[in-house]
Amino acid sequence: NRYMPIVGSVNRQFMALGSFEDEASMKALDDLGFDTILCLPHRGTFVPDGECPWNDEVKRGELDLARRVVERIRGHRVAGVELFNEPFLWRIRKGPDAGRKTMPADKVAMLHSEIVPEMKAVNPNLKIVGPCCALRELDYLKRFLDAGGGRFLDAVSIHSYTTDPDVDDFAGQYRRLREMVRGALGRDLPIYNTEAYLGLRNAPITLSDKEAQRGYFQDSEWSHAGVTAAMLVAAGTAHAEFQGVDSAANWLARKGSM
Questions:
Q1: Do the beta carbons of residue 28 and residue 44 sit within 8 Å?
Q2: How far apart are CA 231 and CA 131, in angstroms?
Q3: d(Cα 215, Cα 143) in Å, to the nearest integer?
Q4: Which residues pair with residue 192 across a beta bridge?
Q5: Which tens digit of pLDDT belongs to each residue from 113-154?
Q6: What's the pTM value of the predicted model, to 2 decimals?
Q7: Contact indicator for 155, 189 with CB cutoff of 8 Å
Q8: CA of 49: how far to CAs of 81, 196, 256, in Å?
Q9: Which helix (H) or strand (E) holds 114?
Q10: Are 81 and 129 in contact (CB under 8 A)?
Q11: Which residues pair with 200 in a beta bridge?
């Protein structure tokens, strides 16, 4: 699994529409042994490369789908649900409007305000995680919070792709993120890194994977492990002043001093 959140006891999962109706798929989800954050599926033109309209017909379909998913995951090892995966990247890919972004931050905030209450009506204990922006896209998060989207979150999710935790000031970015959330909401929220591409540049699969050329790939397993450890420690250092050092970062720090 190429995705790993900061806290290693939480898994993130994409599931096709039909998987929620399949008991074997749901059992397999439970058997992973992790608490899972699920990314809500979508359909029709309301997808990453679609037009993403929000008219009455689309709204009815999306709200019905969201309610069905929440009902179906009740009782399973699901720690939370993300409404969208990296909405700041959603855009039309073909035709005369190719390149036009379809999910600006204020729209994503509005969608949370309409979808989340419907989901919470089915299960008030459901945790909503979002808005799933990149750590390098903190302006997008600020616009989302300014539009009121933070009121519908139980935790913030980010994707902290980084080549080097020190050069990219990972701890500083993480700290600014926490301060931004606190400033907008007057309180702290848990923060999940729900995706990090941890790949080896010389692995055979990368021959067909364009991401193999990205800076966050590493040339060896030792480099890979070192960057991962540094990210964990940086995250723990960044939010220690808010709510205590993350257990994984604390463990790594202790091991490093032995």
A1: no
A2: 21
A3: 28
A4: 157
A5: 999 999 999 999 999 999 998 887 889 999 999 999 999 999
A6: 0.82
A7: yes
A8: 21, 22, 44
A9: helix 105-122
A10: yes
A11: 218
